[in-house]
């Protein structure tokens, strides 16, 4: 079985999502399907079809989480330190062209969420950053051409 690196917080979020889906979402969609069935003709019942579609999504997500969670290899980020970029690091970078500053946390593929500032360890940016140190410049291939960034901070908190 392939192991996936993950932070403890990421694993806890996935376990909570699985609990929520099984204990709240699944029973709610089953009730919605039963209620829609009671309305009669299923072929023209939009509520029924929407509930079945939602059920399909929930069951798919439950199956995905049940396969990912046992495969998680939790990495204790609190034990890491230094100025070299590794899994779990919060890295602040500055775009050398626009001087725009951004901070990202490098996490496992199943817990990445760009809206929260976390990027997958398998993303092009994370791959370019891993192993580099504070003050290094990295070149990252992008669809619109390569971008250059300078690492201005590396933290493990």
Can you describe this structure?
This protein is an alpha/beta fold. It has two domains: 71 residues, Helix Hairpins, CATH 1.10.287.180; 76 residues, Transcription elongation factor, GreA/GreB, C-terminal domain (Chitinase A, domain 3), CATH 3.10.50. Helices cover 38% and strands 24% of the residues. The protein contains three helices and seven strands. Strands 5-4-3-7-6 form a five-stranded mixed β-sheet. It has a two-stranded parallel ribbon with strand order 1-2. β6 and β7 form a beta hairpin. α1 runs antiparallel to α2. It is elongated and about 65 Å long.
Mean pLDDT: 91
Shape annotation: elongated
Q: How many domain modules?
A: 2
Distance between the termini: 30 Å
Question: What topology does this entry show?
Answer:
Blueprint: E1 4-7, H1 8-37, H2 46-68, E2 72-75, E3 90-95, E4 101-107, E5 118-120, H3 124-129, E6 137-140, E7 147-155
Helix pairs in contact: 1-2
In short:
It holds the Pfam family GreA_GreB_N. With 157 residues, this protein is an alpha/beta fold.
Features:
single chain, 157 residues, alpha/beta, Helix Hairpins, Chitinase A, domain 3, 2 domains, five-stranded mixed β-sheet, two-stranded parallel sheet, transcription regulation, DNA-binding
